[in-house]
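Form P-L/3: holo structure prediction, ligand magnesium ion.
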Amino acid sequence: MLGVTSLSDPVSELAGVGPKRAQALRSLAIENVNDLLTYFPFRYEDLQAKDPTELTDQAKVTLKGTVAAAPVISRFGRRKTRLTFRLLLDEHTIIPVTFFNQPWLKDKLEVGKELAVYGRFDAKRQSLSGMKIIAGADGGGMGSIYPANKEVRQGTIQKLVESAFETYAPVIVDLIPEPLRDEYRLLHRREMIHDMHFPASDRAAQAARRTAKFEEFYLFEVRLQVVKQQDHTLHGQALTYDLPRLKDFIAALPYELTAAQKRVVNEICYDLKRPIHMNRLLQGDVGSGKTVVAAIAMYAAITAGAQAALMAPTEILAEQHANNLAKLFADFPVNVALLTGATKPAARKTLLPQIAKGTVNLIVGTHALIQPEVDYADLGLAVIDEQHRFGVNQRQALREKGQQPDVLAMTATPIPRTLAITAYGEMDVSVINELPAGRQPIKTSWIRSNQVDSTLREVKAELSSGSQAYVVTPLIEESEAVDMKNAEAIYERFKEQFEPTYRVGLLHGRMKNDEKNAVMDAFKNNEFQVLVATTVIEVGVDVPNATVMMIYDADHFGLAQLHQLRGRVGRGKKASACILIADPKNELAVERMTTMTSTNDGFVLSQKDLELRGPGDILGKKQSGVPDFKVGDPVADLNILSVAQQAAKETVASPNWADKDANLALAAFLSTTAHQNTTMD
Ligand code: ADP
Ligand code: MG
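OUTPUT (holo model):
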């Protein structure tokens, strides 16, 4: 086997692969031998020899037997040929087999020879239209079908894989360390690759696929864990916070933290204190109390003498955070400042130097926080609220405002496990899996638009007990102007119905910021009992006295968004209701509505959302961050993915893991492939 070195050899080392074919293979992302050997079939044709009495008409089958009479070739048309011979299946069954336009097969068909023929069975004629002759008479196995394209045809891939396996089988070594292979009953890599391409049976193919998926996820996860480890060794600031002061602050909160909040606060504080860079994702369902956790973390940073920043996606949210934080910190030495696009030039002019000098130590804002003119004295902790609303660059920009500040990213709604493991795999994750005590459940109902009038009576009854209601107006994707018109029409209608007993307010995206804020404040102070709004109230808004959420055209919203909207109620001590108004036009929309009425659990919903829409739609097509796996499906194979992640964590966690005997092949493989990736770009 001269010349065979390793699976990282370029495919051009293989016989029959010249520069042109190598180029063509590149269109299938096949560059080296390993790429080719892990270019797996997506299905198999069953080549098991069959008994003709069990066959259905037009079935593709393999029949085995002996050649009973010499083939006869007849010509027809201009250049067409038909080759026919008789195949003796057993003592009393002979069937005619026909091949078109392959006269050369004649030489393979000596009388008395045993063979297996793959083809299409014709039940009426009891004959077989042959497609290929399978060497040997066992007829065993399954034909592999690969994803092919115009440049590289099916047959080419099959041949190349065969010859690559023949040549390189001796150098295929196990990548998954032996203890793991034993624990999860996985195949050796050589066997896995063999059985993926040339399985002897369905079962063999399935066993191989299970190992292939595990291997693919495991390699991906080990890489992620290595990146994470490198991130951790980055020199971050050690924020030596003042524990007694932090405890005083927590004791002064108007409520007791939930057990989950306490656990998460500990996880974060542990990271703050260490001289590493924290990159942590804080997950929790709507209303689980993420904001106060962020406040505690920011206060910790401040007691360590650093600054903290909180970036939110909208003006309303930034202002609400600034107000809440100012209240929370009223009796503590924290100077809260708000910086948004709406901040007046004069205010901005006084604020910027204060941020640069450090006299302001808690800065809340929107994208304005990452503008180049904004200089921080010493940014120790950057918190990003509703982090999915920001692009990677914006998150990075905030991070660059300090010297490796710790980063705490918060999500609006729970992220499905699949995405937490793949798209956010390089972050540490903290989960608040518990709502504050005393929360009343939200009852969700779905009505048709012709039932709205009777529902309004129930809403009035609810308001008469002193509660407030949100009314979210239809979402028309194309234009904000149309959204506004809809909102105004519904606003008029509600005024007619509810005033003068109750007052109705209107909020839409086209209003000026100070108008929006004025309306929000008035609603908060119960000057309005009904707030008609477009989705500007979607995230974060916190008015505990509101107990009704009506959503028009609910079928136009995604599950995550509906769950966010619903999360605006159920924040106080009173029971709440969410009313979805929808006349859905398709099955998927119906399923979204029934899912909403059947669960309040954001983790369940997010998983359902992922199944209904796929990862691309959830995180945005272009930057879903979910890698393209070859065999594994991170949604359907979540179990294997989680197990592989756990295994990878354990592998990388042990000190000097790359030098251990069991891991040598793995480490070598990762370093050669990593090298290739960097040189390819
Ligand atoms: P989210 O996780 O959706 O951002 P918030 O941080 O807005 O949730 O919290 C929702 C509401 O719950 C707020 O009014 C907040 O003051 C309150 N809250 C937070 N933690 C607790 C707690 N441990 N006990 C009672 N109420 C709490
Ligand atoms: Mg929030």
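COMMENT: The longest strand covers residues 60-76.
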